[in-house]
Amino acid sequence: MAKNMQPVAKRCKALGLSPAVLGYAKKNTNRNPKGQMRRKQSEYGMQLNEKQKVKFIYGMLEKQFSSYYEKAAKMPGKTGENLLVLCERRLDNVVFHLGFAATRRQARQLVNHGHFTVDGKKVDIPSYQVKPGQVIAVREKSKASSLFQRLTGEDAPFITTPAWMEKDANELKGTILRMPTREDIDYPVEEHLIVELYSK
Questions:
Q1: Distance between CA atoms of 43 and 38, rounded to whole angstroms?
Q2: Partner of 9 for a Cys bridge, out of 27, 68, 140, 197, CB 3.0 to 4.6 A?
Q3: Residue 51 C-beta-side C-alpha neighbours within 13 Å
Q4: Bridge partners, 135 (sequence order)
């Protein structure tokens, strides 16, 4: 499986993102301290930057991202918003938002290793699209591991769960209440620029 293994702090700085969006609270870089002094970006540069930003956040490569765009373009409504909603509905993103993984990269790895079920059935595909009503849970065999045990009890870290899902921390599971909307996207992105880029 293809992976995006770019350095997180360096890439976030180049894209104008906070590492916290990806789950990295303390990452930073001192490289290129005068990076903000670059000449003004062209229209194409701004469009490309927005596309690279979304691809990097969700850990996707071009082929998969392009297929998401094509699917979004065929759906009713605004293509840009449809694209972001498809990205948000990825199983690895849901696992990250439920707090079962510290970062999206870790969530993708945990899903690949078969630690989660959807409606009681093991799913090991990070790009799996969740639907309203589905229950995402840590597998019974996996609950005993130290990684997941630290997520329950009084010392469990506090995680703010998005409004479109509900978490049962004690049972290590979450329920998809509804489809995510544009308002649920918690990072700065101008999706219309991505649409303009692909429309050329």
A1: 15
A2: 27
A3: 21
A4: 175
Count CA atoms within 13 Å of residue 34 on its CB side: 3
CA proximity to 180, closest of 137, 129, 136: 129
Please give the mean pLDDT across all residues of the chain. 86
Taking the CB of residue 127, how many other CB atoms lie within 10 A of it? 19
Entry field: residues in the chain: 200
Question: 88 to each of 42, 68, 76, 146, 180, how far by Cα in Å?
Answer: 29, 11, 17, 27, 7
Q: How many CB atoms are located within 10 Å of the residue 192 CB?
A: 14
The answer to whether the beta carbons of residues 54 and 189 sit under 8 Å apart is: yes
Q: By the 8 A CB rule, do 146 and 48 touch?
A: no
Query: In this predicted model, what pLDDT tens digit does every residue of 148-158 receive, in sequence order?
Result: 888 776 666 77
For residue range 15-64, what is the model confidence (pLDDT) as tens digits? 666 666 666 665 554 444 444 445 677 999 999 999 999 999 999 999 99
Distance CA 119, CA 136 (A): 7
Question: Above 80 in pLDDT, residue 172?
Answer: yes
